[in-house]
Amino acid sequence: MTEVSLNQITKKFGKQTVLNDISLQLKPDTIYGLLGRNGAGKSTLLNILTNRIPASSGSVLIDGQTNINNDRVLGKIYLMSEANLYPNRAKVFQIFRQTAHFYSGFDFELAHQLASKFGLNENLRFSKLSTGYRSILKDIIALSVDAELILLDEPTLGLDANHRELFYRELVETYAQRPRTFVISTHLIEEIAGMIENVLLIRDGKLLLDDTAENLLAQSYSVTGPEKEVQEYTAGLNVIGHDNLGKLRSDYVFGQLDEERVLPDTVTVEGIDLQKLFINLTGQTDKEGQL
Ligand SMILES: Nc1ncnc2c1ncn2[C@@H]1O[C@H](COP(=O)(O)OP(=O)(O)OP(=O)(O)O)[C@@H](O)[C@H]1O
């Protein structure tokens, strides 16, 4: 069981502060969704975790040890990202072998099985792989390495719908057989919503949410009905956004409702999904909705 903590991580690129004093601990054997708008700093965070780039300040501790120039602890983490770290001439099976030099428990059997399921020809050179198959190769490696913490930065980039579904299925299957921690950064929230146990949401350089999906959804509502009644009902609640649908209005509320308030017959309250919650928490153009 590997303990991972980020302590007051700040990252600046020139004058731009991308991550601002982020602290968190990753729970063992948990699937995380790392969410945030384009440019929010998700890749930067994952790169700092794996020491691919340095933080401006703060520290990353893996089982209590720094991740800086520390192969022993970095061997407990695998980052799948857009970066192509393989020689163009290397063939797929050679890349599997190279990976096993660093991750000695690399599961060749699983890698072969997955290559076959995805239709990845192991004799092809890396340079000959399409964008989708490059992602597939890296995803297969991510599922086959013996690391305790698997970071997936846009793992389905370029994958068609069938391959995306196959990948999620295989991820859940390997997770059931060998629990470990996954952090999945993706914009396809709907597709991973069902398997995310914990949500990390970055906004304006800050870690806005770090909670179970269950807790978050249990306090996320849409309140729909005629505009006047809806606004009267939600006045003073934490309204994070709204939609107008003809004469109807939906207010999205994050946080507890007021049990004392009488719900008019014309107004309905329903739960919302993770994607709707995300859009409303990160899409504000004004200051409505505070956490
Ligand atoms: N090497 C770099 N030099 C300067 N700025 C950088 C560098 N890397 C990232 N940035 C900036 O940091 C910010 C965060 O980038 P990052 O790639 O971490 O975001 P992201 O959340 O992964 O975005 P996306 O969802 O679009 O992939 C962006 O404004 C980006 O331009």
UniProtKB/TrEMBL annotation:
KW Plastid (keyword) present: no
Which residue range or ranges hold the ABC transporter domain? Answer: 4-229
Entry annotated with the keyword ATP-binding: yes
The superkingdom of the source organism is: Bacteria
Pfam families xref list: ABC_tran
Record's PROSITE patterns?
ABC_TRANSPORTER_2
An example Gene Ontology molecular-function term: ATP binding
Write down the SUPFAM superfamilies for this protein, in alphabetical order.
Answer: P-loop containing nucleoside triphosphate hydrolases (SSF52540)
Keywords (A to Z) from UniProt = ATP-binding, Nucleotide-binding
Entries under SMART domains matching the protein: AAA
| Name the record gives this protein | ABC transporter, ATP-binding protein
Q: Which organism is it from?
A: Ligilactobacillus pobuzihii
Its taxonomic path starts at: Bacteria, Bacillati, Bacillota, Bacilli, Lactobacillales
